[in-house]
Write a structure and sequence with these properties.
Length: 699
């Protein structure tokens, strides 16, 4: 981008331009300013997105008091220093919109404090904007065209779930790649499982529901988007949500994302065998199709299918938890006409941020909770943790692992409830990932922390809740059992049975990654932050989480390095929601993850990810009633967007959520006034109704 230096213009040879701009200079005139900057208008939106992210100081307008407050603007307009400019939505070079005639439509006047070079065309006219309505279709838009309806494979009769509501199961078929139609091979398709909660229990349980009982075309649809990536989405997981939505006249659809829960990673056993026999590169290409962009295409295909089946227009109202907000923001970016409203709890994606920038923020929360655990609750456990790490790393039984796993390592194999082999292991590294459970524990208030805006309402369990958070109690119990085994076992410390089954069961119940049943969580966890939306996110993740941990100033995560030694009196901290490469992945994920370890490293080096967001589209989400009325004419639509964020969310940083909300036009962000409420509040029985009230009705 052209810049100013010392309030004086650069010489033409000093001016640097974005690669999206094609620069051509004429002979400088009296003002010593290059008179020609030809812009490739097909890619201008990318230029503007790039400028707003790389030079955020240029996107902070000084507003006149009479104007309504703006969220931080995404599109930065090159302006003459310290002058009011008209920010136009038409092409200033079209006939009837000459600068000497003035704008022929409504304008938005702002005064900018940041100096910038005016970009001029050959005829010395100042381009203030571009006519986005008449521009050519970009390659990104082409990726979202031509989505075909999913195939409805069947609808099962109603049945009651564990929250008392009735639901019916729907099975759909969608392409693995929505851009390739007409392929007949089964491995080119995926099956999606969905559950539709549409009523209260049948008052006459002796009357069976007819298999042909129709889905109501009158009730609007809520689409619940769960967290992840990699989680299933059962309809009875948030019972109070079902009650709230049905009372408001909705029916609620729960779709298991592709490759998760009851939507299998492969179409059938034949397709599975074919994928498992692929090269690591081909496996990586296959797995790359399971991010949120293709999840959105699946959901759109289901919407089109239901429109066809019910012969009515359908717009989703999205309720999103955690990663569901990532999915919803992609949906809002590229297919806003399919949406009525978007409600997000603890799930504002870090727009324009790299994986490393995200983990630098989240590790602040991880460290804080470790400090709470070791400094305030169980200081004696720091020495115990050093003992456990040293034992598991150097003296635990040697394991060869299951077929396909890498070289031997030390640890204990875990078994299922019926004694079946899970292929997962307790190692010193998997033990130190147990900090992932800290997210549901409230933090201890420090000096400088903001006071809660409201007093937290009492819940039915308020008088019996322990002073020590439950996640900390469970971890302390495991550590105590571990140390007891080491001190009292009849076996030597290098014997296979030194650690009791009681301790191993405590660990298995506390370990929450569960990669053996949701491998996509590990394989795509960093990939969900990678996008060609802007330059800094157009780069590989490079296992950013471990890089941030090892470079942390405390040195408390040095145990991640296989060459580090255990130093007496040194503090060691647990990690949180962060995925690290092998040898950690193999013991955690077992045979479900092992075939994809090579592909995981390829994905970590992948730089050519498709765009997950369109900043210009997000920003254009209408803000006024007048614009909403004109939406159809302009080719735009208004989608109501409201989100709830939490002050001490360990998984989704509040500051990043606030920045993201500012990039979405019309987005209202509600910051939860209760410091002890956290990431999963939407799913907690005594908090669900309050959170949904904020989302639907505002504060």
């Amino acid at each position: 981008m052209a810049t100013l230096k010392d309030e004086g213009l650069h010489k033409p040879q000093d001016i640097t331009m974005s690669p999206w701009a094609v620069q051509r200079y004429e002979e400088p005139g009296d003002h010593d300013l290059p008179t020609t900057f030809d812009i490739d208008y097909q890619n201008l939106s990318l230029l503007l997105q790039e400028a707003a992210i790389l030079y955020p100081q240029c996107a902070k307008p000084k507003l006149y008091p009479t104007l309504q407050p703006y969220t931080p603007v995404t599109v930065t307009t090159p302006v003459v220093p310290k002058r009011s400019v008209a920010v136009s939505t038409k092409d200033p070079f079209s006939e009837g919109n000459r600068l000497d005639q003035g704008p022929t439509h409504a304008t938005d006047y702002r005064e900018y404090d940041i100096l910038a070079v005016p970009l001029r065309r050959k005829d010395n006219r100042l381009p203030l904007s571009v006519n986005m309505g008449s521009r050519q279709k970009t390659s990104t838009e082409g990726l979202w065209a031509g989505i075909k309806p999913a195939v409805l494979l069947g609808i099962k009769p109603r049945q009651a779930n564990n929250d008392g509501h009735t639901f019916r199961t729907l099975e759909f078929e969608v392409p693995l790649d929505h851009h390739h139609h007409g392929i007949s091979q089964k491995d080119a398709f995926l099956q999606l499982h969905a559950e539709l909660v549409d009523s209260f229990p049948n008052p006459n349980p002796t009357t069976p529901d007819a298999p042909s009982s129709p889905i109501s075309p009158q009730k609007p649809f809520i689409l619940y988007l769960c967290g992840g990536p990699g989680d299933g989405n059962p309809s009875g997981k948030v019972p109070e949500l079902n009650k709230f939505c049905i009372n408001r006249g909705y029916q609620v659809l729960y779709v298991h994302y592709r490759g998760t829960g009851l939507s299998p990673l492969f179409f059938d056993s034949t397709a599975k065998a074919k994928v498992l026999n692929m090269s690591d590169q081909d496996k990586a290409n296959y797995l790359a199709k399971f991010r949120q962009d293709n999840i959105v295409r699946d959901l759109e295909a289901i919407r089109l299918c239901l429109e066809k089946e019910l012969a009515t227009k359908i717009k989703w109202t999205l309720i999103c938890q955690s990663f569901g907000g990532w999915v919803a923001t992609t949906y809002l970016s590229f297919l806003p006409r399919s949406l009525e409203a978007v409600y997000i709890s603890a799930g504002m994606p870090p727009l324009g941020k790299t994986p490393r920038e995200v983990y630098e923020k989240t590790y602040v929360h991880i460290v804080r909770r470790n400090e709470d655990y070791f400094n305030e609750y169980f200081p004696e456990d720091q020495e115990h943790v050093r003992t456990i790490i040293e034992y598991l790393r150097d003296k635990a039984p040697l394991q060869k692992g299951v077929e396909g796993q890498p070289a031997s390592f030390r640890g204990y194999e875990l078994y299922g409830e019926n004694g079946e082999r899970k292929g997962c292991y307790l190692t010193y590294q998997t033990f130190m990932t147990l900090g992932r459970t800290f997210g549901s524990a409230p933090v201890i208030r420090r000096d400088g922390d903001e006071e809660d805006e409201e007093e937290e309402p009492l819940s039915p369990t308020s008088f019996i809740e322990p002073k020590i958070p439950i996640p900390y109690q469970k971890l302390h119990r495991l550590i105590t059992s571990f140390i007891y085994d080491l001190d009292h076992s009849i076996y030597s410390r290098n014997h296979d049975n030194t650690i009791s089954q009681t301790t191993l069961s405590l660990y298995a119940n506390l370990e929450s990654f569960a990669l053996h049943r949701r491998p996509l969580y590990a394989l795509l966890h960093e990939a969900i932050y990678c996008s060609s939306t802007c330059p800094q996110t157009s780069q590989p993740s490079n296992w950013a989480a471990i890089d941030v941990a090892l470079s942390h100033s405390s040195g408390a995560f040095s145990w991640l390095s296989p060459t580090s030694s255990i130093i007496p009196s040194k503090k060691y901290y647990f990690t949180g929601e962060a995925i690290h490469p092998t040898p950690l992945l193999s013991p955690l994920g077992g045979p479900a993850l092992t075939p994809f370890l090579g592909a995981a490293h390829i994905l970590a080096q992948k730089a050519d990810w498709p765009a997950l967001y369109d900043f210009c589209s997000l920003r254009r989400n209408q803000n006024s009633a007048k614009e909403e009325e004109e939406g159809d004419e302009k080719g735009m639509t208004k989608v109501k967007v409201r989100a709830v964020a939490y002050k001490q969310d360990m998984y989704v940083d509040l500051g990043l959520s606030q920045q993201a909300a500012g990039l979405i036009g019309g987005c209202e962000l509600v910051v939860c006034p209760f410091g002890s409420w956290g990431h999963g509040s939407l799913k907690e029985v005594d908090k669900t109704e309050r959170v949904l009230g904020w989302l639907f009705d505002g504060v």
